[in-house]
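pinned: reference chain
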Amino acid sequence: MSVSQKCQYALRAVLELAKRYETGPAKISEVAEAQAIPIRFLEVILNQLKQGGFTDSRRGKEGGYTLIRSPRELTVGDIIRFVEGPLGPVECVNGKPMDKCPLRGDCIFFPLWERVKNAVTEIYDSTTFQDLVDEE
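pinned: its structure tokens
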């Protein structure tokens, strides 16, 4: 599974907000500069994260974006799933109907795809944004 550029921007934006979690709202321009994200993309991404219940915003001189949840409670997997969808490498392990698959029920690769999905999920879901802030 490849993580899209949009998802990478979302992860970097959330990381920057996590770094500023205790200090208050961050302006879009500050997040964009700190994480090398084009402002136009960042505006769209932060708005989507707000609609998804991950961020909040305040207007005005002291305004900006903040995380709604603590960085200790927010995982990389939460953001990737929100932006990209399920974490599995192929549709059949993501719970999608396998009507079009000629090997339905008899695919030698299915257990492999499940192991890949489980390994990736474990890594993403066990990594919080606080972990990343501490690592930095």
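why pinned: The longest helix spans residues 110-125. The chain has a mean pLDDT of 91.
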